[in-house]
Design goal:
43% of the residues lie in helices and 18% in strands. By secondary structure, the protein is α+β, with helices and mostly antiparallel strands. The chain has one domain. The chain has a three-stranded antiparallel sheet with strand order 2-1-3, with helices on one face. The chain is globular and about 25 Å long. It starts with a strand and ends with a strand. It holds the Pfam family DUF1059.
C-alpha cells in the first residue's frame, strides 16, 4: 500500500491518502487538494508530492 500524508506536503492537515500505486495516490491527492484545500495541483506540485509517497 502506498501512502501520502498531507502534513508532509506542508499543510496543517491530518489527511492520509492511500492507494495501490503512485498514480492512484496522485489522483486522490489532486482531488483532496481541490476539495479540502481549494488548491489546483500544478505539474510542479505533483512532482514534489510524488517524492513524498511512501510504501506502507
Amino acid at each position: 500500500m502506498k501512502t501520502l500524508h498531507c502534513r508532509d506536503a506542508g499543510y496543517d492537515c491530518d489527511g492520509v491518502i492511500r492507494g495501490n500505486s503512485d498514480e492512484e495516490v496522485m489522483g486522490q491527492a489532486a482531488q483532496h487538494a481541490r476539495e479540502v484545500h481549494g488548491v489546483e495541483a500544478t505539474p510542479e506540485m505533483s512532482a514534489q508530492l510524488k517524492n513524498l509517497i511512501r510504501e506502507e
